[in-house]
Amino acid sequence: MTLNKQAQLIRYQDCPSTPWKNGGGSTKQLLISPINAELTKFDYRISIASIGSKGPFSLFNGIDRQLVILEGDGVELSIDSHEGAKQINDLGEEERILGDTDTTEYKRLTPIDSPFCFAGETSITSQLLGSNVIDFNVMTKRGAFKAHTQRLNFDSIFIEENTAITNNNQNEHCNTVEDSPIVQLLCCLNTMTWEHNGEVIKIMPYDMLIIKPGEDIKLATTTPSRLLRVTITACKPSSK
User: Fold this and answer.
1) I need a labelling partner for 230 at 20 to 30 A (CA). Which of 54, 101, 144, 212 fits?
2) Picking from 28-32, 92-96, 111-115, 230-234, which range would have the lowest pLDDT averaged per residue?
3) For the whole model, what pTM was predicted?
4) What residue segments make up the domains of the chain, in order of their start?
5) Per DSSP, which regions of 52-115 are E strands?
6) What does the DSSP assignment read for 13-30?
7) Span of 21-35, 75-89, 137-151, 223-237 with lowest mean pLDDT
């Protein structure tokens, strides 16, 4: 749903749901760039997933990921780390020696925790802590784009004035602080209204507003409400 050249409202209910191959959940893709990109060749991607059972995360080589728990009791993540030594085999090739240097780290994520950032190549298995979970996912192509995800809370009126993207959150994979702004997103986690061009538009949970720098956004609610703000920027290559 395009409202003008700047603002775009993506309705969560209109996004198709895709089941996982392992049957452990499903995903709704809210945004991908380029628009027709495959899951192995995108610049950035925003999605919301439902997790119904224990299972491994899909691997995304060359992708940086951010994960936020939205609903449910949460998950415990088993994060595998394979930093074993290497040796040369009879064919002159390197091969890994798995030994005592292998470790598994555990991390619990709940709906009150900050976004969890990790590399898409990391081997992770999730275990539900109780009820089924809904989570929010941000993926960016490493070295080309970066994202910063924030939780926001407000009681009645939220105003995003002259939305500007800053460089305060530098990703270690980027080569310079002079990053170019791409897009800023607001994912609404509660029911609220959007005052836009004299209209009052009802926003439902998990609907997402795509905003460009310089645009003013005004949201209103009658109860304490939550937002996720995602800022995506492009990394400029360092000059030689």
Assistant:
1) 54
2) 92-96
3) 0.81
4) 8-234
5) 55-56, 63-71, 75-81, 85-88, 94-97, 103-109
6) GGSPEEE-TTSSEEEEEE
7) 75-89
